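Weekly structure sync, notes
Attendees: PL, DS, HV (note-taker this week)

Item 1: MaoC family dehydratase
DS walked through the input record. Source organism listed as Halolamina salina. Sequence as pasted into the shared doc:
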Amino acid sequence: MPVATVGDDAEVQREVTEETIQQYAELTGDENPLHTDPDYAAEGFFGGIVAHGMLGAGLISAALAALPGDIVYLSQDLDFEAPVRPGDTVRASVEVVAELGDDRVRVETVAEVVDGDDSTTVIDGEAVVLSVSHDD
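Item 1 (cont.): predicted structure, written out as tokens:
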């Protein structure tokens, strides 16, 4: 099985629904009312329910898993730049930008809300992962 090298990229895309947000809250125990209570959230900073930031980060993880080789997360830096709302479609994209030695690669990571030809970056970051052959 090949391993991830500079230039390799991958992406995943998913619609985020109120149900997705609720399931994430139940799975993680993060019941912050900005994510789970429409009345409370309407009066809050975002003016309505928003998805957990880490839900978008989870899509980045899924995109990393689509790279060649067995991928093992070592670190991730994330900048949360905009909210994800119910009904948004999120595309997470990753690209290997450097080989660091010892089977480690640096990967640029981004999640965007996409609407036709338009997109808004919601998460920008960088990860370091191990990329090893399953045969190793």
